[in-house]
Amino acid sequence: MSTFSTAMNATSHYQNPNPNPNQAAYSSTTTDQLNELLDFELSDYVAFDGEFEEEISTRDTAKRSENVENNFNGSLSSSTPLASNIRKEKNLGTKDEFRFAFRTKSKLEIMDDGFKWRKYGKKMVKNSPNPRNYFKCTSEGCSVKKRVERDRDDPNYVITTYEGMHNHQSPDSIIHNQMPWTLQPSSSLQ
DNA sequence: CGTGTTTGACCAGCGC
DNA sequence: GCGCTGGTCAAACACG
């Protein structure tokens, strides 16, 4: 199966097995409302099919983020506010693993995406002054991982990469019956 | 005491 | 083979 098609379903039909881009919020609220509710902006995200290239999420981000933010701030109610932000990576490998990365303007590195994560590592990476944090989903039998790091080009942005697919519902969505991937800045995790 | 974080050590992959 | 780098492990630690 194509994992990219899964990603496309996720972006167009809210069937993302992973949390994320709170597109629903985009389509139903104004920028001001969003800014009031959330102190971050989703600025970019990338769906991967197969092999993931680390550089993709930071490559040329300055230019793209400008475009994205202009879109976001100027035409939020347009029909395709995110269309230009979806990028398909070449399928360079045969791995079936689902990977999904996006870039968020946020003061906080940790997004409360409804899932429960356990931090298992922190590493300084080459060519970046900021450490990369490694998380695993704590749900039993779920091996989804995510990496979180600040954009080396613009520390105001946080790059989050999800790897794998959740085999369960978001606990938060069960409790609150809300979109499971609605992101919220979290102060409960450090 | 249970749960989650920190952090140094370890391992695997890759380029030379 | 060796060194570099990214990713993971696990013991120690912190906290409620």
From TrEMBL:
<keyword id="KW-0238">DNA-binding</keyword>
<dbReference type="InterPro" id="IPR036576">
    <property type="entry name" value="WRKY_dom_sf"/>
</dbReference>
<dbReference type="GO" id="GO:0005634">
    <property type="term" value="C:nucleus"/>
</dbReference>
<feature type="region of interest" description="Disordered">
    <location>
        <begin position="1"/>
        <end position="28"/>
    </location>
</feature>
<protein>
    <submittedName>
        <fullName>Probable WRKY transcription factor 51</fullName>
    </submittedName>
</protein>
<keyword id="KW-0805">Transcription regulation</keyword>
<dbReference type="Pfam" id="PF03106">
    <property type="entry name" value="WRKY"/>
</dbReference>
<dbReference type="InterPro" id="IPR003657">
    <property type="entry name" value="WRKY_dom"/>
</dbReference>
<keyword id="KW-0539">Nucleus</keyword>
<dbReference type="InterPro" id="IPR044810">
    <property type="entry name" value="WRKY_plant"/>
</dbReference>
<feature type="compositionally biased region" description="Basic and acidic residues">
    <location>
        <begin position="56"/>
        <end position="67"/>
    </location>
</feature>
<dbReference type="GO" id="GO:0043565">
    <property type="term" value="F:sequence-specific DNA binding"/>
</dbReference>
<keyword id="KW-0804">Transcription</keyword>
<feature type="domain" description="WRKY">
    <location>
        <begin position="106"/>
        <end position="171"/>
    </location>
</feature>
<dbReference type="GO" id="GO:0003700">
    <property type="term" value="F:DNA-binding transcription factor activity"/>
</dbReference>
<feature type="compositionally biased region" description="Polar residues">
    <location>
        <begin position="1"/>
        <end position="15"/>
    </location>
</feature>
<feature type="compositionally biased region" description="Polar residues">
    <location>
        <begin position="68"/>
        <end position="83"/>
    </location>
</feature>
<feature type="region of interest" description="Disordered">
    <location>
        <begin position="56"/>
        <end position="84"/>
    </location>
</feature>
